[in-house]
Amino acid sequence: MNLLIVDESSAVRDRLAKLLAGVSNLELMQAASVAKGIESMRDVAPDVIVVDVLLPDGSGIGILKRAKQLFSSVTVFVNSNYTDYRSYCLSAGADAFFDKSFDFDALIQALQQLSARFATRSDRIDARGSGGLGLRDRPAMHDD
């Protein structure tokens, strides 16, 4: 599972990385801004994105909307202290909203569960002989 964490706080990114270090089938990418998040999406299509609402160069909601347009199966979790944005993020397509101050354990648990599901799907695809196509194969991104 390709996981992209977009949060300006290196402490938050590092804490998530440490807590997820033992999760198998996980490739972790990190970004501290909207620009770096978009660049990371171009480099490796994420399966899951964890994004904060407010970033130094814009809104994580833009990453949420862009990811949902580009990747039909991407899961996007918003992890933010700005809980006033919860309803808006969910209506914009977020799969879940986590309060960074209180829901950190729930976010980790959700990511672990997703990773386990991806591992199971990957095993089924490999057993059927996918012809080299896997869960990470996604169409190329194009800027229109």
Q: Globular, elongated, flat, extended or rod-shaped: what is the shape?
A: globular
How many domains in all?
Answer: 1
Strand content: 15-25%
- Overall pLDDT: 86
Q: CATH-wise, what's the superfamily?
A: Response regulator
CATH topology: Rossmann fold
Amount of helix:
40-55%
Q: What's the CATH class label?
A: Alpha Beta
User: Low-confidence segments, ≥5 residues, pLDDT <50?
Assistant: 124-144
Structural class: alpha/beta
How far from one another are the termini? 27 Å
Radius of gyration: 15 Å
The topology string of helices and strands comes to EHEHEEEHEHEH
**Strand line-up of the largest beta sheet:** 2-1-3-6-7
Named at the architecture level, the CATH assignment is 3-Layer(aba) Sandwich
- Overall strand count: 7
Features:
single chain; 144 residues; alpha/beta; Rossmann fold; five-stranded parallel β-sheet; two-stranded antiparallel sheet; 5 helices; disordered C terminus
Brief summary of the model shown:
The protein is built from five helices and seven strands. The chain is α/β, with parallel strands linked by helices and 144 residues long.
